[in-house]
Amino acid sequence: MSSNNVARVLVVGGGYVGMYTALRLQRKLKQELRQGTVEVIVVDPEPYMTYQPFLPEAAAGSISPRHVVVPLRRVLPQCKVVVGEVTAIDHDARRATITTLAAEETGDGAIEVAYDELVLAPGSVSRTLPVPGLADVGIGFKTVEEAIGLRNHVLEQLDIASSTRDPAVRDAALTFVFVGGGYAGVEALAELEDMARYAVRYYHNVKPEDMKWILVEATDRILPEVGPDMGRYAVRELRGRNIDVRLETRLESCEKRVAVLSDGSRFPTRTLVWTAGVKPHPILAASGLPLAGHGRLKCTAALQVDGVEHAWSAGDAAAVPDVTAEPPAKPDEPRALCAPNAQHAVRQSKVLAENIAAAVRGGPIVDYAHKYAGSVASLGLHKGVAHIYGRKLRGYPAWFMHRAYHLGRVPTFNRKARVLAEWTLAGLFKREIVSLGSLENPRAEFELAAGTGRHNEAS
Fold this sequence. Notes:
Blueprint: E1 7-12, H1 16-28, H2 30-35, E2 38-44, E3 48-50, H3 55-60, E4 69-71, H4 72-75, E5 80-90, E6 95-100, H5 101-106, E7 111-114, E8 117-120, E9 124-126, H6 134-137, E10 138-139, H7 144-163, H8 167-173, E11 175-179, H9 183-199, E12 212-216, H10 228-240, E13 243-246, E14 251-253, E15 258-261, E16 266-268, E17 271-274, E18 278-280, H11 282-286, E19 297-298, E20 311-313, E21 318-319, H12 342-361, E22 374-378, E23 384-388, E24 391-394, H13 396-409, H14 413-428, H15 444-450
Helix pairs in contact: 1-12, 7-8
């Protein structure tokens, strides 16, 4: 797949950094791409980019799942999109090994792709701990599939509670435990509690006060990105909705569907959502490139892998010096790094694409410099917290700011229009509270009919 007269840019990952970098390269290298002198290849296990800030609203039913994702082939028509996973990188030879769906089906093995410039942006994966029972009952909240699966699961628990006479089963079905007080955990819990509170009005024997919503956080505050004041306000807001917020508490065990906390509490539950952080993708350690703390790639301010030519990174995968931060007090202390969040990832991708285009054309590269603007978080419908450019907002203004900010950041005008239309319709009509849990096993009914199930007919 290599060619001596084509400059090939291999982008590993189709998330924030991968998609936005390829999107900008399409514009910067439009002429070269048309002439065939430059080739951009994007590799990702999924054929779409997930806009993760909208996952809580997708779980709550405020946004359709298909509008949370952006199809890579549609927005990157000048790039080659490969649905697969990079399993090995030999940067000295400038070659990457990719396992594709076709390779898995045919057994031909992985394919090798030669490249001239490498962009490592595989994102992050869920960070789990050796908690007994977690692997068996835990539910993640990082993909659109997990968000919709969690929505269906919560509504299914309401059905179970409504139809059982066993108080132990009912209590476990109506107990929802979320571990992790960052963006994902708080926003997911707040949106789903809002949805469930609305849904129970249609159940004759389930009331809002029957449900137990528990947030477990190991540190002394939640939502650290919005600052201590807004974090404390968020705790008061959640507790005011009868949500049990447990700070400085850890999950010790969840075997046999019983969540045991470090403070001695025990909660029989059928729902345990794990959002306690992320870790770098394993491909980073396997790449042989220099790593910094926490397993991220050690990068320069120009988003190059430190000491390695033709290798670039940004976002979750990269430890990038923050040139806007105050210099360290002592010369031997490390410089502050850019936070691995979506705000920096989107802005870094623009500089990254500019620098790669300059490297291909032989021009100068520039450093990434962007002062952190602030953070916004939703606490459910019409509720939120925000800390923007030093100003603190709460309640409806913060919630409105949250929606406005992310509407402006979601890729493509198509997605912006569809999301805005859905928000408008959601304000005019009632919530949808239908569970489509059978989507997770769509062949179950057919298998039942074809086997020895209740639909089996005598011949």
